[in-house]
Amino acid sequence: MFSHIMLGANDIEASKKFYDAILETLGYEPGVIRGERCIYMTPTGVFILTKPINGEVATHGNGSTFGFSISNPELVQAWHEAGLANGGTACEQPPGERNGEAGHLYLAYLRDPAGNKLCGTHRMG
Question: Can you give the residue ranges of every domain in the chain?
Fold first, then answer.
């Protein structure tokens, strides 16, 4: 569905450390810094961290969440722990199972160093 996702970051090195750690748990290579951006290339799309082009401070979107599809609950937990150990902060409820309109899920939420809200998601089936 998406060709790329770009998130604002105020400290590219701190954000790279955080995303390298959480994405490594999912089997992705470390990002590559090019100028004011850190780029993660995957077979299905590109994930980019960038300082805002307008030169202003990067801020998170109120109501925005970026979800990562994860293959099992254990990896969701490892993803969450890697984020906490590398500059992320916990938000929402603790990691665990949820039942609701979207079905039976295992979720974990983090905020990255710039405050962007992330969700590690496994659909329980």
Answer: 4-52+64-123
- Written as six digits, the tokens of 54 are 């307008």
Residue 48 CA to residue 57 CA, distance in Å, equals: 17
**What's the pLDDT tens digit per position in 13-45?**
999 999 999 999 999 999 999 999 999 999 999
Look at residue 93 and give its three-state secondary structure.
coil
Compute the distance between CA of residue 2 and CA of residue 106 in angstroms, rounded to an integer: 23
Q: What is the CATH number of domain 4-52+64-123?
A: 3.10.180.10
| Distance (Å, whole) CA 64 – CA 6 | 13
Query: Phi-psi bin for 95: left (phi > 0), alpha (psi -120 to 50), beta?
Result: beta
Residue 24: CB atoms within 10 A of its CB come to 15
